[in-house]
Structure formats: C-alpha cells, structure tokens
Design a protein that fits this description.
The protein is α+β, with helices and mostly antiparallel strands and 732 residues long. The protein has one domain. The protein has ten helices and 37 strands. The strands form nine sheets. Strands 18-19-20-21-22-28-27-26-25 form a nine-stranded antiparallel β-sheet, covered by helices on one side. A hairpin with a 5-residue loop joins strand 29 (580-585) and strand 30. The longest helix has 15 residues, at 168-182. It is globular. This is Slr8030 protein. Keywords: Membrane, Plasmid. It holds the Pfam family PhoX.
Length: 732
C-alpha cells in the first residue's frame, strides 16, 4: 500500500492522529502536489538525479524526455550555489602517522566559534585502490607480491601466527598487515576558521592517530571498562589468551559513531570479524587466531590480526575518546555490548539515566539500548563518561502492531528465540536462526532452521545463565562479549541492518535500516516488521523508522514505532533512494541522509521484466547520494537530492557546524571496485513515477580519479561543503 504525506505528518506529530503509531505509515509522495520551482522553504535547487522523483514536478511524458539520457560523473556533485573543499585525504600527515583509509564517521567538537576538533573514523581498506596507490600516498612499498605467492602455495590462506618469528614469510606478512591496520582506526585533527570563515586544519599536539595496532610497539594501549574486564583477566580460559589482561591493542573496523553532549566521541567497531575471529566460548574467551587466518588474493585481504595474535573478543566494542586530550587513545566500554557496532546515539537528560541506542550492522542484527545504572546530573558534564561503565544492555523486540519492548540481556532472561518461520527469505536462503552452540565446550553458533528445533533448544536452556554457566561475577561479561548470539537466544527481533540512530529534539529516535535482504551466514530479518511499501518481503531498499519511548523516558521498557520513509522507486511506492545509512539532524531539526548501496550494484543494468525486487535493481539509483528530508514545514514528508558521490564511493559521516554554514562529509572508497577502468554506456530500464516504462541511455565513467585529476589514483577524503555566499544552509 502506498501511503500519503498526511500519514507522515501524523506519525511525526504534525497532524491529526499523531498520537497513534501505525507501523505501515510510509510518508510516500504519491499524493503530494507539484512543487513547481521546487523552492518554498527549500533553500537549494536539488541536483539532477538519475531517475524521476515525485518532487520533480514533471508529468510522466515530461519525465520520459527529461530522463532519456543521464551522464554519471566521477565527482562530488552539489547544487550550483554550493562548493566543496578537501580538508584531508589518505596519506596526509596526522600526528606521527597519516590520514588513514576509508574515512567514515566524523565527530565535530567545537571549542569556540573559531576552533574545533574533528575525529575521523577509518573503517577498512579497499584492497584494489589501496594496493595501487599505497606507495604514491604513503611513500613506502609493500611486499604484496611475495605474500601473494606464499599464500597461493597454501590455497590462498596462511596461519601466520603459527610461523616462527624469523620466518621470512611471516616478516613480510607482518609488514603488509601492519600497513593495513595502521590505515584503520581513528584520527584527531584540530581546525580553525580563516578570515573568510572557512574551516582549515591547524595542527597541534592533540593531532594524533589511534590505529589498529596502537599499543603493539608503543605505550598507547586502549583500555576497557565494564563487565568484560573480568573475562579478559580470567586466569583460566576455555579458549585463547593473548597474555595482555585488560590491555587492548588497537581498534579497527571503525565505522559509525556519535558525539556526546559533553564533547567526547564514540567510535563503533563494526566488521571486525574479517580481521579477527568473532566466535567466543561460553566463558567469553576468544578462539585461537588460527580460526581467522590471513587470506589474500589480487582483489582482497583479510585476517590482518592473525599474524599479531590479536584476541577476537577484544574487538566489536564501542570506543570513547576525548579529542581534546592528547593522551587519550581510547577506552572500550564493554557494558554497551560486543557486536558489529554501527549506529550510536546518546540521550542525556538531567535526572534520568543515560541511554545509548546502537545497532548491529548485519542482516539479522539487532537494535540495542544501554541504560546506565546511575543518572545524569548535567548533560554537558564530562564526568558523564563514567555512566558508560555500569548499566543494562537491552535488545528491541518489535511487534507488528507498532508496539515494542526492551529485553534485558542479563543472566535471568528467558531463552525464547525467534522462530525460523518468522524470518524473511529469498530463493537462495531458508529461515535460519543462529544460537549459541548447545555444546557449551564449543565456541560460536549453531544454525537452526525449523521451529521444532528451536522448541527443543528451549528445553535444554531455560535462561541465559544456562547458556553461560560460569562464575556469577563473570557471567554478565560473558553474555555481553557474545551479545549478538545472546540476543538471538533471548528473542530480540532480527532487523534489517540498523546502520544509524539519531535523537530528535523531542527525544524520539530515528533509525536507518539499510537493507532487509537475507544473507548467507547471517540469516534474515523479521518478515512481519520489515516489509516494502507494497508489502514485499524480502525488501532490499531500506527504511527509516521513528521510535518513541513510553512516557518519553529513556529507561522505559516499552515503546511505539513507525516507518517514516521507505526506499525504492517512486513507481513502486518508494521515495526514490535505496539503502539509507548515516543520518544527521540540522539546526532546524530536519533530516539529512546518505545512502549505502553496494558498490558492485552501482549503475548495474538489470532486466525489469524478470525481477524488479532483486539486488541488481538498485542499479537504477546510480551512485550513492546525500538527501534532505524536511521533518516539518511546507515540504515535510518530501525528499530532495542534495549530492551524488564520485564513482564507486559512499558518502558518510555528515555533520553540520553549529552555525549551520558548513557541512563536513566523508567520501569513502572512490574507485573501490576495479580501480582504473573505462567509460561504458548502459541502457537502463526506468519507469515514470506512475509506472510507465521507458529506457534511459546512461553514460558511466567507471574509473575514478577523485579528488584528484588526470591519471592520479583516487583517494578517500574528508571535505567541507559551503554555500558560495558563506551563508547558512537554510538561507534562501
């Protein structure tokens, strides 16, 4: 069913019926009148987008003419009255290292009107452009070919951890993996405004890198708080012990993040499982590094932590750092749980507990809420960081009627998994629920694909305490180390890749669910909750949800929810984007959103008659993009494209300066797929907004040189975006 803008206004509290949550209320644009010149309270002229949108104000016949051709650009495309400036790119100096690879979340902490700190996440390396450009960007060569040759002789993988220290192959692997891990983690840079009001770098002693190997050869270990310390320091472990106790080497996979009201930044360790083992034993200890060996091919590199013997249970946490403290290299708050962290938003209300909303970015990942044991006195007090050390982690259980409840991940929580019959599947998958292995002497999960088998599992384990049968002072830590599987066992709803959370001024939470498509090894989401605009399951294009706590209390145990936006083509009930990711709220309380379409699907042609719901169909949306979604005012419930990224890239980490004159944005992995390539012509099957089919001739410059020109290789970079008049974004 396609819903009207009236539904959106109701869900957002802007019209009649606002108090009632209907989970199927997508604020789609079918009933929106033409905008004409697309202004009103809109303060920019939307850019040209590759497919027709309801907000174009064109008739179907006009759409067929206007969109008959489209030229994709290897450029950060902005409205004509805006420009961008590169603030820093891969290889630029930062402290005693350099600007890492694949910049993601940006945490802006302004100290006064003219100075600020910017924390930058460096998520992972895209192996093709990384290996092509490393020597040019960093000025060092890498032993890639010798490691490739050695790995090929062993089937493409090597347990380098088991090799002797003086083994030449191990020495080369260490050099390669050190480079890959140093290019991940976090960076802090200091900024100042120049005479024109533009933000520029102003390096000082606070500029520093926290890398994937901090602490290995220096004194910059990361520290930890919370229940998992008892796991790290347990002298008798079922599994692997790195011998470091509570000390932790480095941070990597740093994807999303959040900035606290008191000026620290949270950095989320997401896809750590590609570099160290994810599975743990019942006592929370890690499996042997051999379970995640080095793997290398001409197209990829994984298992970078293997050669250094990194313990997998020390990754997958939320890391806090104070950018202003030059000696702060990060603390991992284990009370917030270990999983593939993405979204994080902090709600600090005086005289209430602190709440942290986070997500696990996997299809079947959960939405979590941490509630502190103590309460907030002043939201801006830096002492609030202590509230991360003790509290309760909950997982969200969504009901199809628009209500929900929070399930505590504690020893006395009842084992009551979701049934496989409730999981969304496609033609290549079946409904699977992954639960902690019933043989508690084995690490990891067991895949269960029948409701009967789940019922049998429940006869063996009544509570989470039965699944983690260790000393009571370590039991909570073991549950949090294994949070994803513990949440599965407790019946927390498997969701559709929750990639960001943002707190609205009214205290409600927006959640970006990127994709409901199932995947091998992770399973799928709840088919009753994550349905497309026309009820389709599975649905890949994604949603934005609004969640309201009962009584507006962040420690409430129940909530209401509703979808406020759905991805997909307008002719099929979507708003015209696909795969929403990072969200940002501007100074007027309106929403900005970037997309996270898989690089391999950008501009890919598909056969519309064969399957319009396939993963390939996202090719119609072109490159990843940045959107403006007004939440109030004349244009509330509509959507406008503001930027399109360069080839193969993802736009990440949008954040506004306090005066709303500058948008900071990270451009991640340009040229990721195949590096330098040629231009091609694609005949793309489009539809008008009312569903009439037509063809578009699309020119696609597959290579990327961004942000440089000529034959220069592409580099990830952070940019500032401003209006040419240097006025705020909302100026007309």
């Amino acid at each position: 069913m396609v819903w009207s803008r009236r539904n959106f206004l109701a869900v957002m509290g802007l019209g009649a019926g606002a108090a009632l949550f209907n989970p199927r209320q997508y604020p789609l644009t079918a009933a929106i009148p033409k905008i004409g010149d697309r202004h009103g309270d809109l303060s920019f002229q939307p850019i040209d987008y590759p497919i027709p949108l309801a907000t174009d104000g064109l008739t179907p016949a006009q759409q067929k003419t206007a969109f008959a051709t489209f030229a994709v650009q290897d450029e950060l495309v902005l409205p004509s009255d805006f420009f961008y400036t590169v603030l820093g790119q891969w290889g630029d100096p930062v402290g005693d290292h350099w600007f890492g690879f694949n910049n993601d979340y940006l945490g802006l902490v302004e100290t006064d009107e003219n100075t600020a700190y910017l924390l930058i996440n460096f998520e992972y390396i895209s192996f093709i452009p990384w290996r092509q450009g490393y020597e040019m960007a960093i000025g060092k060569s890498l032993p890639i070919e010798t490691v490739l040759t050695a790995a090929e002789a062993q089937g493409g993988k090597i347990n380098a951890f088991a090799l002797a220290a003086d083994n030449p192959v191990k020495i080369d692997i260490e050099a390669l993996c050190e480079a890959a891990l140093v290019d991940q983690g976090m960076g802090v840079i200091r900024l100042e405004r120049n005479g024109q009001g533009d933000w520029q770098r102003s390096p000082n002693a606070t500029d520093r890198r926290i890398t994937g190997l901090s602490g290995l050869t220096d004194s910059h270990y990361l520290t930890a708080t919370g229940p998992a310390i008892a796991i790290f320091t347990n002298p008798t472990k079922q599994g692997y012990d790195d011998g470091l106790g509570e000390k932790i080497i480095g941070t990597f996979g740093n994807c999303a993040g959040g900035t606290t009201p008191w000026g620290t930044v949270l950095s989320a360790e997401e896809n750590f499982q590609s570099q160290v083992p994810e599975a743990v034993y019942a006592d929370g200890s890690a499996v042997d590094p051999a379970q995640c060996p080095l793997k290398i091919s001409t197209n990829g590199l994984s298992g970078q932590g293997n050669v250094f013997g990194l313990a997998g249970n020390k990754y997958g946490w939320m890391v806090e750092i104070d950018p202003a403290n030059a000696n702060d290299y990060g603390v991992k708050h284990t009370a917030l749980g270990r999983f593939r962290h993405e979204a994080v938003a902090v709600r600090a209300t005086a005289n209430q507990p602190l709440a942290v909303y986070s997500g696990c970015d996997r299809t079947s990942g959960h939405l979590y809420k941490f509630v502190s044991a103590d309460t907030v006195k002043s939201p801006t007090d830096k002492g609030n960081s202590r509230l991360f050390t003790a509290g309760t982690l909950y997982g969200a259980k969504f009901n199809a009627d628009g209500t929900g409840e929070w399930i505590a991940l504690t020893p006395d929580t009842v084992v009551n998994p979701v049934r496989p019959s409730d999981i969304a599947v496609d033609s290549s998958t079946t409904g699977i629920v992954y639960l902690p292995h019933p043989d508690r002497n084995q690490a990891g999960a067991i895949a269960i694909d029948t409701d009967h088998a789940v019922a049998e599992y429940q006869t063996q384990f009544a509570t989470l305490a039965d699944l983690y049968p260790i000393e009571s002072d370590r039991q909570q830590g073991a549950i949090l180390v294994d949070a994803h599987l513990a949440a599965n066992a407790a019946g927390v709803t498997p969701t559709a890749r929750p990639e960001d959370t943002e707190i609205l001024p009214d205290g409600s939470v927006l959640i970006a669910f990127t994709s409901g498509w199932p995947s091998q090894g992770d399973g799928g989401c709840d088919r009753h909750i994550f349905q497309g605009p026309q009820g389709e399951v599975p649905c890949n294009s994604g949603w934005i949800m609004r969640l309201q706590e009962t009584g507006d209390r962040c420690d409430a145990l129940t909530f209401g929810w509703a979808m406020i936006a759905a991805g997909g083509e307008p002719s099929q009930g979507g708003l015209g984007f696909a795969n929403p990711d990072n969200l940002a709220i501007d100074g007027r309380g309106n929403l900005w959103m970037v997309t996270d379409m898989s690089t391999s699907k950008h501009n890919r042609k598909f056969e519309r008659e064969a399957d319009t719901t396939s993963l390939d169909s996202v090719g119609v949306f072109g490159n990843n993009s940045l959107w403006y979604l007004p939440l109030h005012g004349p244009n509330a419930g509509q959507i406008f494209p503001f930027a399109i990224g360069p080839m193969d890239s993802e736009l990440t980490g949008p954040v506004f300066s306090q005066d709303q004159k500058t948008l900071f944005l990270a451009v991640q992995h340009p040229g990721e797929l195949n590096g330098l390539r040629q231009t091609e012509i694609v005949t793309m099957p489009l539809t008008t907004t009312n569903g009439e089919p037509f063809l578009q001739t699309r020119t696609v410059p597959l290579q990327s040189h961004w942000p440089n020109s000529g034959d220069m290789l592409s580099r990830p970079a952070v940019v500032t975006i401003q209006r040419r008049t240097r006025q705020p974004f909302h100026s007309s």
